Fold each of these.
Amino acid sequence: MAEPIVAGDRRPTSHQVVAEILRHRIALGDFPPGSRLPTERELADVLGVGRNTVRAALRQLTEEGLVSTTLGRSGGTRVRDAAGADRTPRAEILANFRATIRDSLEYRGAIEPVAARLAAERAPIEVRQRLLRLLDEPAEDLTSYHRLDSEFHLGIAAASGNQVLHRAVEQARADMFVGGNALWLQAGWSLGHAANAVPGPRLRDEHLPIALAVLGGDGPAAEAAMGAHLDDSHRQFRFLIDQLEKLDTPR
């Protein structure tokens, strides 16, 4: 059995984190025995990691006996029938997701509003204009939504002109979104965003107040807008977890 990732241990590698996420998704029942996992490309896109990382994670799960891979048109990586023999309860896994996302967003709430204020006060006008134009790029599915969302937030962090703060934002997003994006892997967009049929409008609506404040050089407004956005993100994730918990509640 794989060793759990425990706080205070040596920092896990990227493929270990991905393997842990996939174990959780199997334990949650979203990939039942016999079902086929998404392709390496799909997993890499959704989780925001490289295909080599996904491949190493799948190899680890194969060695653990959780999945098996076959070649050919009807092949792929499937969950083995014995994978449910020693599962963590679904409620416990969702509770862990809830706590992890809470901690990550509290940390992001402490650093990203400061980055937005500094970006408004320091960034050249062409950089601030580019952040606004980014919101016009199409986000037609979850993959493009997550990519553009990361580009915007990391663009704000880079525009702050503070390299230490930029690295902190990068790491905070990486720590959160490998796990956070996994929540969307089977839930789909509509479960968490019923009011928006496609991600594009949501992406623009969420980020426009921040982009306009940064463009206008209004540091306090940019800081407040980023803080409000992160609060809303936390509400979205809580709502999504609530919906996943309801799916598991007996009728």
Amino acid sequence: MTAVAERTVDELVAEARSRLPGRVRPDDLAVAIADGALVVDTRSEAQRRRDGELPGAVVVERNVLEWRLDPASPHRLEEAGDRERPIVVVCNEGYASSLAAASLQALGLVNATDLDGGYRAWKAFTQTGS
């Protein structure tokens, strides 16, 4: 039996973030969209219903993310045909999205990253401007 190195989820998130090119800050999300980034909201339907939609984002549930964004997948979104396109993954608080963006990078989507602080940080920024 092969020994598996045990790590904590915090270590996994830190490792994922170390590979992400410039996590997008909430105050820079509009610029990323204007520059052509594909923003992908992975929050659950219940979270979106409770907290609100993210304007300009496509909704892709986390459990199908890789299939919908892999340019080689027959199940990909039309918007996901370019491995070079910047992709900003958004979750509720910015933890699951870091892991998801690292997974997309492993598929060769070299400009996948996530929204620092997630939807909650973006919502707070839009309400306070800081």
